[in-house]
Amino acid sequence: MNVADSNEIGRHLKAKGLVETQDPQDASIYLVNTCTVRQHAEDRAFSEIGRLGRWKAKRPGRKVVVSGCAAERTKEYLEDRFPFIDLVVGAKSIENFNEIAGRLLDRRATDEDLDYAVPAVNEKVAAFVTSMRGCNYSCTYCIVPYVRGREIYHSIDQILAEVRDRVSEGAREITLLGQTVNSYRHGQHRFADLLRAVAGIDGVERIRFISPHPYYMTDRVIETMATVPQVCESLHLPVQSGSNTMLKSMMRNYTREHYIALAGKMRQAVPDMTLSTDIIVGFPGETEEDFRQTLSLVEELQFDWGFVFKYSAREGTPAAELECLPQQLIEERHQRCLELVDRIALKKRLDLVGTIQDVLIEELGVGRTRTNYKVHVRRESRNLESAGRAQTIKYMFGAKRKPDRAQPQQTKRKPARSASPREAQAR
């Protein structure tokens, strides 16, 4: 979501004549888009913002903009601690950033050094499109509903118009985004309808979506994944815990048994699908038995990869009122779970050695399989590739790197299968 929000904000600024730069010394506006899911992410953002006072003072007219979830939650604190900030845009206001940016850029009386130029075109072949914002769930550990608000759904016409815009800029792969993306509904349309509508747009070769909630993985959504060729054979479906006691305490609205049955149903419908997940270890009250149930779930379902998080208390959430486990215990459980997830992920990758996969080249020498493996193409194969064109190449995964947790994708009538965004080498 943060990447999509950053892209959306960037498009508004480019439409007003600014161009993107990777060199802070060339910049006139410095945007910090923040996250507040975990304390570490928030602390890093504040540290980065603190360094910008000196950057701004070096040239008249420079502006500092802070946006996102931490901006929503800590607006007054940010303005008090960093008085040089020009604009704080909370997550709930990103939809209105075009108007807000207009007011910011109108302050030009003394901004002689602001650089205005022809808007740049985003030529990335894989683009994010936001279909909804907010979350109606009340998971006890999660700050998102408090900083992003209740669910708001974009109309299907608005979403399709943005997809067409991204395709016209060079995108071949569209990832639909939402906090619980598969809960989408607008009028008579539901998420399965949205997937089919996006697939109907000329130029869309691949469709992904994140992050779905198990409760909304309906039979219609599963059937759409199995029958619409553009929908990739990969799914990232957070489970968080394998213990029903913990799932109830987290208020996840499903049980271990429901999740296992759902995974079986999806794999039956899409046999080559990769399945990845999110897991929280060290949630308040988690016993050794609860933790062992999480490990046994990982063993049973054989996730293609996963993100394992140490519980981080967020002020304002119900779980923050509970007594935390000792940090040393959380660290130990995190390591045990991580080792198991990585061991299974490595075996999954080794199973792919020698298989043929469709790889969409995103940039020189790098692409992704439909199952969301990141692939590094060997130099001798690069004369075959053209950024933005899917092509079939034979690849093998390198054993020298540890898997980096991430995405999913695959099915029968579509190109090969894969697992996580773990990296591979291609021939």
What percentage of the residues does DSSP assign to strands (E)? 15-25%
User: What gross morphology would you assign?
Assistant: globular
**How would you classify the helix and strand content by structural class?**
alpha/beta
CATH architectural grouping of the largest domain: Alpha-Beta Horseshoe
Number of helices: 13
- The CATH topology of the largest domain turns out to be pyruvate-formate lyase- activating enzyme
Biggest sheet layout: 5 strands, mixed, barrel
Provide the gyration radius in Å: 22 Å
Strand order in space, largest sheet:
14-15-16-18-17
Total domain units: 3
Work out the number of β strands.
18
From the structure above, extract its key features.
427 residues; alpha/beta; Rossmann fold; pyruvate-formate lyase- activating enzyme; 3 domains; 5-stranded mixed beta barrel; 3-stranded parallel beta sheet
Concise account of the structure shown:
This protein has 427 residues and is α/β, with parallel strands linked by helices. The chain has helices at 2-15, 39-57, 69-73, 75-81, 97-106, 144-148, 156-168, 191-199, 219-227, 244-250, 256-269, 288-301, 327-350, and strands spanning 29-34, 63-68, 87-90, 126-130, 132-133, 152-153, 173-177, 185-186, 189-190, 206-210, 234-236, 274-281, 305-310, 356-363, 366-369, 374-377, 390-396, 423-426.
